[in-house]
Every structure is written in C-alpha cells, then in structure tokens.
C-alpha cells in the first residue's frame, strides 16, 4: 500500500513539474510571434478494480481558436492591402505635383496668359517667344509627371517580383514543417514548437498575399489563395509574377498577374501587400496614366486645331505647336513643342484668316480655352480631384482595416495569447501541487522508516 502511495505521489510530482515547465515556456514566449499558449491538462489515472486510482497523468496542449485565427489572418491581409495601396497611391499623387507653383496647372495658365498677351501685341517678337517658352514648360512638366508615374509603376513591379520570391521561399518552409509534423504526430505535444514556427510563417503569408490555412487531422496545414492550393502536405506549388505594360508609354494594356509556375493557372490574389500591388498596376495606374495622356491629347488637339484656323506672316495655315517627340502619337511621354516653331516662334498663327499684321484674334481664341469647360485645364482639374479622392479613400480604408485587425487580434489573443497574470496564478498552483506531492512522499517515507524501526 505504501508503494502505491509513493507511486501516486510521484505522478503528482511529475505532473506538477510539467505544469511548472509549461508556465516557464509560456512566459518565455509571451512576445513570440505565432506562439500559441500551452496548457497542462491533468487526467485521473484509473485502472480496473482499483478503488483508489493510480494517480494523475498530464499532457500539454495548445490553446487554439480556429475561427478567431481565421478572422485575424483575414484582417491582417486587409490591413496590409490597405497600407500598401495607400503608400502606392500617395506616390502616384506626388507624381502630379499638384497643387504647386511648378505643377501642370500653373504651367498651363502661364501659357494661356501668354497667348492672351500675344493677342494684344501680335507685332512684338518677344510675345511669340514667351508663348513658345511657356509651351515648352507645359510639355516638359507633363513629360516629368509621366516619368514620375512610370517610376511608381517600376516600384510596384519590382516590389511584386521581389515579394513573389520571398513568398515562394516561405511556402517551401511551410511544406518542410508539414513533413516534420507528420513524422512527429504520433507523439503528443511533440509538434507544438513546429506548429508555432509554421504559424509565424503563415502570419507573414497572410499579410503578403492573403492565404487561407486549413489544418488537417495530422496537424499539417494546407494553404489556399482564392481556392488555389499553394501548399498541400509536403508539396508546394510555386508562383510567378507577370507585370503589366507601362500604362504611360504602351498603346496596349496587359494585366499584371500571379500564376502557378508549373501550370500557368491564375492565382486570384486579392488581399495582402501583393493584392494591393496588383490593384495598383491593373486599375489605378492605368487610370492615372490615362489622365495624363488625355490631358496631352486634349491640349494638343485644341491648340493645334485652332492654330490651323489662323494665319501668320509667312503661312496661310498655322503650324502645330505640339507634336510627338517620337512616333506618331501624342501622349504624356511624347508631347513636345514643334521644333520648327521653336526655331521660328513667329510661325504661330496669331491672326485669323486672312492674315492681318495687327490681328491677334486667333491667339485670343486659344487663350479663351483657358476657361472652357471642355478645355485642358478643366479636364486636368477633374483628374487631380479624382486622384485626391482615391488617396483619401485609401486613407480611410487603412484606418478601418487597422481597427478591424486590432479587434480581431485582441479577441484571438484572449484565447491563444499568453497572460502573464494568469501564468503567475498557475505558477503558484503548480508550486503548491509540487510541494504537496513532495510532502506525501516524505510522509510515506517517514512512516515506513518508523515501521522498520519498530520491527
């Protein structure tokens, strides 16, 4: 009977030690990303025909909340998406440099004002020179905005390509851990550390491209994006990023995409940092590029068409002021001042037809485009406003997504996170359990010693 007492007390001692070890592990990893709180579970050890029992057994389990974790990962993807989109939109907005004394709007106003001045002094060579100089400034400023927007495109494309490489490496890590988990699944609790490591990687993948993890019976994790499996057990489907065409310089538009490297199957990435980059390249940048290209064609067509209706001292029909610097199409990247007119500004058809030396009526007609509701300035103002609204909307989305993530994370941590206060209470309980079990052992030992001495 004394042997049974010692065995029971020893099981209590060992279980208390397991509890103390668990507390130590939790406290040490309280701030470790991906760590799931561990809990010691005690069970009565009972054998048939034993009226008392055979002590206690202990096991260590992770505190998980699958639904809460899915919400947190989804919120993380939403937050990362909003942050990346806001950052790229802010860079695109800065490309336009509006409002600014050196921005497109101010350069357009200066050019139109110079046309107005030319209409009043059509016999002065300096008036023609000022029109050409201001037109050059307009073209150069539009060209610079196009270059700036191209830089944002290059930034987004490079970021997506680099991120794709990182993601592929992380997918390999998840699959490798799956293999390790499968080989250790027969030992209870042996895979806890592996699961923590995997969770940390999955957290990163969620913010990068919005993965959905599904846990299998053996503890392995399957990773899906829009229903497409990227990781199944130890198998990985690598992904590839294909950029879109430059929305400024290209006459045709292709969509940036993510596909499975092996099969070419499209992966519908709509969340995370990569999802935001795709949105920027496929939707926002083409729209912003069209704003600049539309401005360029509207400006060139309106000014050139009006010049064609006028005359100069040497021409019966005015030469175009704006021409493409290369190719045959005027857009934001190619708009430039006609070299022929730049070399001889008095070719500008300031007079209406037929030519009259003191007439500046055609120049005034161009100046009137400054306030036209369908003019270049009005159209550009609307475009700048639309860009501002897009940035403002992204800022609101970021604030909302951050709030949603914080709420989801707090709810998840309440279940799987480590509370130092709770661990301190557990520490006291396990310490007392250990001391009590040790006391039983010492008491039984003393009783046996007393019996031996009395024999």
UniProtKB/TrEMBL annotation:
Q: Where is it mainly found?
A: other
The Gene Ontology biological process annotation of the record reads: bacterial-type flagellum assembly
Q: State a single Gene Ontology molecular function.
A: structural molecule activity
Residue span(s) of domain Flagellar basal-body/hook protein C-terminal: 415-453
Extract one GO cellular component term from the record.
extracellular region
What's a Pfam family this protein contains? FlgK_D1
* Residues annotated as domain Flagellar basal body rod protein N-terminal: 7-35
The signal sequence is none
Report the gene name: flgK
Which InterPro entries does the UniProt entry name for this protein? Flag_bb_rod_N (IPR001444), Flg_bb/hook_C_dom (IPR010930), FlgK (IPR002371), FlgK_helical (IPR053927)
Keywords (A to Z) from UniProt:
Bacterial flagellum, Cell projection, Cilium, Flagellum, Secreted
Which subcellular locations apply to this protein? Answer: Bacterial flagellum; Secreted
The UniProt entry's sequence similarity note says: Belongs to the flagella basal body rod proteins family.
Q: What's the protein here called?
A: Flagellar hook-associated protein 1
Q: Where is the Flagellar hook-associated protein FlgK helical domain?
A: 93-322
